[in-house]
Design brief:
Structural class: alpha+beta
CATH architecture of the largest domain: 2-Layer Sandwich
Radius of gyration: 48 Å
Number of domains: 3
Largest sheet: 7 strands, mixed
Helix content: 40-55%
Number of helices: 16
Strand content: 15-25%
Distance between the termini: 98 Å
Number of strands: 18
CATH superfamily of the largest domain: GAF domain
Length: 586
């Protein structure tokens, strides 16, 4: 057991006399045939040793007891020490425990240990009896020791199994609580779920204080696990709010430099309630609820303190265990994560709504401006026509040349403004009504409208969409606008004597209309950019006519018809734009 005897202990005679005053059996024990010793206190200092015990350990004469470590074999001291500790700590006797050899050449020994003054909360000391182990006694002692060890092992395994099962139950409870807390990203619904957090094993209900973005405190409406007490809780929730000096809840964790778990145990709970109730009515309701020990756990997410949960135990006589605290921290952490996610989602929705409203306003403003610009442009066209018709007098050749330039710029501006208006209409969620549209007729009509522009540049074109029975599920006007944009774009970027080809391919579910040109093509890294609004350029990145809205409008319209536009291009060889739409079989 490794503990030295008290060097200040008096002689054996004095020790015996002193022991006899406390233990009257000491005189009789001194003449007993077996070694006896009496220890005092948790350090097991030898207060008395009879003659056989002193002779066994080799003490000469009636001298004070000596440290057992100095006279017993190491094997014996390592066996005896835990027995003495257990007997003193638990107040239970140990009978006929096999120790083995105590000293050299003295055979094997067993020991029995009895606590002294068993009526006390803890014994004053221990009485030890040593017996020479017979063969039968040794076997019996060994059998008893093995049985004891097996029993202890079984008890330890049972405790471990219980602990493992409890851990599994806590994990399952936290998973279920996390699911309930994150079922919705709506902050109001998340707060309602947080108000119901509880520790069911303790019958503990939760008081949830939330720190608002403006640093004010809100106490959520509480939910009691006992339905019969829910009306009291509901009444309490109407008037009970956290205050800065409260001894539990968010106020106490906000006062700490670092948010920590805090406990209010019985009997201090009554004092804490009186300080935090803030009114006689609130205190009366709390007393009717039967408030037990309080456990306040901070809610922290992403390094930010979001509030605190105070668990109110329904078992006044039971303190919170480390497992209870761990479970409470898990609930608070999941509540914090749910609240933080709901807040972030709410902020994102708010920002998106503001952005949508701002974008919608800008689009309408842009559409109004473009519409107003068309009126003076049409007036310019009308007045130039009157001048060319010589309504107000003859016109010289030079003047006609200038008028032609005015007409060309007016027409160019009108095209730009029309593109801008089309883009605004497409951005403001156009109404799409799809019907069965013959693809061959739609492509032929678009080519006919742009034929003059192609002939002016001596561009050849070929329509290979020859199957008149192919139908697309599309809006006729929107499809016409998409085809006009794609073909006019091909004419614009195809040099003189170039070639434009239109084709149509089908699958069981889709129709693919492609427009291929032999123009300048697009660099691969710039392909996705050409579909962005107000971006249009050749392979050198130079802006070339228009404001870069044709392809952006076309893709938006195609997607509105549940389709898509893709492009394949090789710089210097040309591009192929393909619009894919759902197919109508009849």
């Amino acid at each position: 057991m490794g503990r030295a005897l008290d060097p200040e202990r008096p002689t054996a005679e004095a020790a015996t006399s002193e022991s006899e005053a406390v233990h009257p059996l000491a005189r009789a024990l001194d003449h007993a045939p077996n070694p006896f010793a009496i220890t005092a206190g948790p350090t097991h200092a030898v207060a008395y040793a009879n003659g056989p015990f002193r002779r066994l350990v080799g003490a000469s004469g009636r001298v004070a007891a000596v440290p057992i470590d100095d006279v017993l074999l190491l094997e014996a001291t390592t066996r005896l020490g835990p027995l003495l500790d257990r007997a003193f700590r638990n107040g239970v006797a140990v009978l006929d425990h096999f120790l083995g050899r105590l000293v050299k050449g003295a055979g094997s020994w067993t020991c029995s240990i009895w606590p002294l003054d068993e009526s006390a909360d803890s014994p004053e000391g221990l009485m030890i009896e040593l017996r020479m182990a017979t063969h039968a006694g040794r076997n019996e002692a060994l059998r008893r020791e093995v049985s004891e060890r097996l029993l202890l092992s079984a008890l330890r395994e049972a405790d471990a199994a219980d602990a493992a099962e409890a851990a599994r139950d806590r994990t399952a409870f936290l998973l279920d609580a996390g699911r309930r807390l994150t079922e919705s990203l709506d902050e109001t619904e998340t707060r309602d779920a947080m108000a119901g957090v509880a520790l069911p094993a303790l019958g503990a209900w939760g008081i949830v204080d939330v720190i608002e973005p403006d640093d004010t405190l809100t106490r959520l409406a509480m939910v009691h696990p006992d339905p019969e007490k829910q009306e009291l809780v509901r009444e309490l929730s109407k008037h009970w709010a956290p205050q800065p000096g409260d001894p539990f809840g968010a106020p106490v964790v906000m006062r700490n430099a670092q948010p920590l778990v805090t406990k209010v145990e019985m009997p201090r709970v009554a004092e804490a309630l009186a300080a935090a109730s803030h009114s006689a009515d609130n205190l009366r309701l709390l007393e009717e609820l039967g408030v037990g020990p309080l456990l306040t756990v901070p809610m922290v997410s992403d390094g930010r303190l979001l509030g605190a949960v105070t668990f109110v135990s329904g078992q006044p006589d039971r303190a919170y265990t480390p497992e209870d605290v761990e479970l409470a921290e898990g609930l608070a952490a999941r509540s914090a994560e749910a609240l933080n996610s709901a807040r972030l989602y709410g902020e994102a929705v708010s920002l998106r709504e503001k952005a949508d409203a701002s974008g919608h306003f800008r689009m309408r403003f842009l559409g109004n401006i473009a519409h107003e610009l068309r009126t003076p442009l049409n007036a310019i066209a009308g007045y130039t026509y009157l001048i060319e018709a010589e309504i107000h007098g003859p016109v010289t050749d030079a003047q006609r040349h200038d008028l032609e330039r005015i007409n060309l710029n007016q027409a160019h501006l009108l095209v730009l403004i029309t593109d801008l208006l089309n883009f605004v209409r497409a951005s403001l969620s156009p109404v799409i009504e799809t019907v069965a549209v013959p693809v061959h007729a739609a492509v032929s009509r678009a080519l006919a409208l742009l034929e003059g522009l192609a002939l002016k540049k001596s561009i050849h074109y070929q329509n290979e969409a020859t199957d008149h029975d192919i139908l697309a599920d599309a809006d006729p006007d929107r499809l016409q606008q998409v085809l006009l944009n794609l073909i006019s774009n091909a004419v614009k970027f195809t040099p003189t004597e170039g070639m434009i080809t239109t084709r149509c391919e089908v699958t069981e579910q889709t129709v693919q209309i492609s427009v291929t040109d032999t123009g300048m093509g697009v660099d691969p890294e710039k392909i996705e950019g050409i579909f962005e609004p107000f971006v249009q350029g050749d392979q050198k990145g130079d802006v070339s006519g228009g404001v870069g809205l044709g392809l952006a409008i076309s893709r938006d319209l195609a997607r509105a018809m549940r389709g898509e536009i893709t492009v394949e291009s090789t710089p210097g060889q040309g591009s192929c734009f393909t619009v894919t739409l759902p197919r109508r079989l009849s």
